[in-house]
Amino acid sequence: MARHLVIVTGASSGIGAAFARQFASKGWDLALVARREDRLRELAEEMKARFGVDSVIIAADLSKANAPKEIVKAVEDAGRQVDGLVNNAGAGQPGHFIETKWTDQARFLQLMVTNYLALAHLVAPGMAERGFGRIINVSSVSALLPSANAHTRFSGTLYPGAKSLLIKFSEALHLELSGKNVHVSAVAPGYTWSEFHDVNGARSTVSQMPKFWMLTAEEVATAGYDAVERGIVLRVPGAWYKFLTALSKVLPDPVGRAIMRAQEKRMAARAGASQ
Ligand SMILES: NC(=O)c1ccc[n+]([C@@H]2O[C@H](COP(=O)([O-])OP(=O)(O)OC[C@H]3O[C@@H](n4cnc5c(N)ncnc54)[C@H](OP(=O)(O)O)[C@@H]3O)[C@@H](O)[C@H]2O)c1
């Protein structure tokens, strides 16, 4: 019997590369997607050597509308079917909403929302028909906490909303596919060591964070894999972020927002002091 195959988007770095390693360690073949093909090839070689799994390498720009169809076609052209999907590729859209071009915001939504949904829409019917599938959508803890200027300045005004949609989408699709052995989960990480904060220009701010606020990409991928296998719809990795999200559920919204403002001021003061 052929091994299962999972598409991992954004596999050239950070959380996506960790998800690829996690699935490969469980015996899944991989379809690795990102723009930096050289990195995907290196990862594929590493996964073959360590776990004996095969990879399809797909260089694609997921801010383009035709990318999802091209990705699925590349997998089918390799003679494979899609049993798993990790929707993970992403970058922020730094800058205030009113000062950025709409074309940039639209590109952000294509990358962070529309193409996540389009890929799921392409692969979920086959999974349902065959009676097996695993879909993970990488959201963010920013979807579960009050928004803060510091976050939206670096990741984008639409970032928390885009990530919120992925949680509600995961919940709804999970329900829709219940009884078909197709599990859908959202994983909502907090600050995670990766290239994300370099790409968004937030490295100096993030490096002011207390160390216990920082997750590793491996922690996120392990938590996400465990959640989807168990059929858990939403997983927040890390004890600190579990505590914060639980707290935000019991605090009145204005109090939560006031705490975020205070934290933001502390971060700004620390960043200023270190310059
Ligand atoms: N790091 C955090 O603190 C954090 C927290 C919560 C949620 N997240 C989410 O986690 C996900 C992964 O981020 P990360 O932290 O692992 O960041 P990362 O290290 O910068 O990785 C981002 C990945 O996405 C790919 N990517 C970016 N733009 C792309 C495009 N237009 N087309 C195709 N691939 C693209 C990148 O590959 P190429 O550049 O090679 O294309 C890279 O593989 C994102 O959705 C992010 O929103 C991150």
From TrEMBL:
<keyword id="KW-0560">Oxidoreductase</keyword>
<protein>
    <submittedName>
        <fullName>SDR family NAD(P)-dependent oxidoreductase</fullName>
        <ecNumber>1.-.-.-</ecNumber>
    </submittedName>
</protein>
<dbReference type="GO" id="GO:0016491">
    <property type="term" value="F:oxidoreductase activity"/>
</dbReference>
<dbReference type="Pfam" id="PF00106">
    <property type="entry name" value="adh_short"/>
</dbReference>
<dbReference type="InterPro" id="IPR002347">
    <property type="entry name" value="SDR_fam"/>
</dbReference>
<feature type="domain" description="Ketoreductase">
    <location>
        <begin position="4"/>
        <end position="170"/>
    </location>
</feature>
<dbReference type="InterPro" id="IPR057326">
    <property type="entry name" value="KR_dom"/>
</dbReference>
<comment type="similarity">
    <text>Belongs to the short-chain dehydrogenases/reductases (SDR) family.</text>
</comment>
<dbReference type="InterPro" id="IPR036291">
    <property type="entry name" value="NAD(P)-bd_dom_sf"/>
</dbReference>
